[in-house]
């Protein structure tokens, strides 16, 4: 492709050596080849996009350094896009062909056992059984609490059956048992993995660092604490919010304002204090969807709420009432995607009664979020609703990527068109 698009018979050797070495260095940095049988397709796509951007910069740098080769921007972009289209097709073809091979022919399987019986190990066993495309053949789960076998019997079974991977529940085993299992796995070339107990520190996404020669564990790794990721997300927020403000709100706002004013007296915009990044309060803006009332800052809208106007019901159903928050995004108080901010009174209440609720304030709040596209938007009817919202928000915070943001934005648009049953 380089010969066809860029070089035209020029010095191929210099290009080949420079780009190949550069590709290898970029791949190590981006983890481009770290794709496993359990890797999700969205993660593969994320790796491809990351590598594409880095490689595009590399080729531009090469063209600038060897300017005598007269390699121009348009051919570089064509070359890079065609390369990555080919690579993406090949990468996904291998991924799905291997899955098909495992299901149809029973090949490329890994035999597994689980040590310890509880809800988490049962869920893992169910995952192995219901997803043969991932290539795991689960053989047995050992329950040590009910004395259904000893460790020695378990080790003998693993050797006799040719088990490849051992999964241990930390909560079901003593420290002595874990040490014995580690020794057995090391001495018999078995892959050993641990299933954390949700009540223990092991369940966190830990980051391992060294202070001089002292190992230190960080409880939570937040991608948006990285300055590059922060810059990327902020640049995306400014670009996206500017497009919405210029091309949508510029003409839609006067129409909405007229409709709101025709039905009820009061301001067009509704302003409410909410907690944002680092618990800092800010004014969150919406199109007014209720008749002015003294309880607006205390109580959420409920199903069949008499305070909601007819125009307001339509605005809430389609999520148009949230559009003024793009000004909050532009001003830097919010992000397009993130945990939804709560009223200050609700934040104080949930912080006292819901475990890990305050983790949501490690990043900027969003107009939409993973929790909202996963069925946890709108009114909090039971504790289960807010617990589910916090769970998805924490997952988003610990696993942020630009592709995940785009996926959430797309799903939000689809939900707005279809109509969400909790949008009232």
Automatic annotation (TrEMBL):
GO terms for molecular function: undecaprenyl-phosphate glucose phosphotransferase activity. Its EC number is 2.7.8.31. The chain crosses the membrane at residues 12-32, 44-67, 79-98, 238-260. Keywords: Membrane, Transferase, Transmembrane, Transmembrane helix. It comes from the Bacteria. InterPro entries: Bact_transf (IPR003362), EPS_sugar_tfrase (IPR017475), Undecaprenyl-P_gluc_Ptfrase (IPR017473). It is an enzyme of class 2 (transferase). It is found in: Membrane. Residues 233-417 form the Bacterial sugar transferase domain. It is a multi-pass membrane protein. PANTHER family: COLANIC BIOSYNTHESIS UDP-GLUCOSE LIPID CARRIER TRANSFERASE, UNDECAPRENYL-PHOSPHATE N-ACETYLGALACTOSAMINYL 1-PHOSPHATE TRANSFERASE-RELATED. Belongs to the bacterial sugar transferase family. This is Undecaprenyl-phosphate glucose phosphotransferase. The lineage of its organism: Bacteria, Pseudomonadati, Bacteroidota, Flavobacteriia, Flavobacteriales.
